[in-house]
Amino acid sequence: MGAHLTRRNVLLAGLATAALPALAACGDAEAPPPPSANAAVKPPDYVPYRGVQPDLPGTKSGVLNGYYHYPRHPVAAAPDGPPAEGPPIDVMTLTFTPVPPPASKNPMWRKLNETLGTELDYEIVPVANYPVKFALTVAGGDLPDAMLVLPTAPRQPGTLNALFEDLSPYLSGSGVRRYPYLANIPPASWGPMIVAGGLYGLPMPRANSGSAMFYRSDLFKEKDLDPRPTSFKDFLQLSKDLSDPRHGKYANGDPTVTLYFILEMLHGANTWRETNGKFTWWLEESDILHQALDAMRQLVRAETIHPDGFTTLGKFKDWFGNGQIAMNYDGNLAWNQYLLQYGATDPEFDIGAMIAPGFDGGEGTHWAGQSNYAMLALKKAPKERIEQLLRAFNLLASPFGTDHYLLRKYGVEGHDFTYKGPDPIMTPVGATNVVLPTNMTTDASQSLYYPQDAEPVRRQYAFQQSAVEVLVPDASYGLYSETNVTYGGQARVDIIEGPLKGYMRSNASWDDVQSAVKGWRTSIGDKMRGEFEHVWAGLHS
Length: 541
Hints:
By secondary structure, this protein is of the alpha+beta class. It has 20 helices and 16 strands. A hairpin with a 2-residue loop joins strand 14 and strand 15 (423-426).
């Protein structure tokens, strides 16, 4: 999904809040520079990589490069030899997958070290444990050379300013050109790196086209249904046609993300809307919200939403894959994941993605995603050490078409992958080894590529072309609010899980919804708004 909250992110924010006492143990440091100091920080120059020409060229508006095949003879990412010879590099980061085998049993990891010219020593932390681990590490003072900093980490300006290296002397403006693969990272991904009057990290770029309303095109074809509704009325009828409650079949599973799709039809705010420096939260747009919730009531009453979707967590991908639901609003990376996981056992399995139409016809909108996942911050060190680290992480950002990208994403030929024509196909062993979280260190810009088949690349490219035409950004992207980090996630979830879902199921009234939003505003909302507006004003002064 785009910039909106998931229950997984609420967990991370809650754990980060629980770790505040540990962060406080860092001691008193000087106050960081004010937000107005951020305006003086020059972002790195953007120098797109031209070494491999895409079959489907990306655009400045955010469409990713698309490739039908991997070059059979990849470009050497480090033609002059290993760039980072020197002491080992310690990195603490997180993973969403099982921890891979250690370097002694992992050819991909050993080859990675060889290409860098040093040992990359990862401390890999399960995602649910990371916020507390991060806080305790910072509080203890024994920092690794580099560590992932989540957007939900509290007290960011002070912590970064006190303990981590300001990289602006190395990377601002033309300085980044010494590190050409970092220069290839799009400008939007660098925005959240500018904190406390400095450039405090390396990005982990993601697509700004956000999420998609995926649909099972094979199921649509079976019923001869058009996956391009032209209004909410069309979408409601489509949902009815897809649903068969007596046999456990429904159009949609998760009511929350279905609500987001309806809000896209109504041109609703993507979390925060900015107008002349003033910020409005998505639930404060009461006329739009009321209409969207009434539309959700219609979908629920028509039995088009899986009834267990109101209380279930983590089942929606499986429901979509096994056909219990025909549509699922999910992140853009899920496209290939669905095809790999479910297409392997069902040759008829096929998916597409739709853009929200206007509620009453015409053009709808599409909520932009975050162009960056998190930052990699480097602890303070002498200039020579920082430059060694930057040379290493520059190679870890080498783009599609290079030999090092192939290594990071697919591992070692003959062990982790085999070739199908020019394209690398992962082996079962590779699926275990290649989960080394290099993409949670830094990374190249994402690309559209599916080695098994070029057709999904064409579909994804066409979807992104449509999405960027009606993209709605989250005005708070890249802005830091302590109140938001500390309380914002849980407060939002309380409203969604309480009066919003209650209203959808006709168990709560509109007054209940308005009362909850008013309570949010007086307890934390106005303070959060003020913090965002203050940072925004500093950047635009």
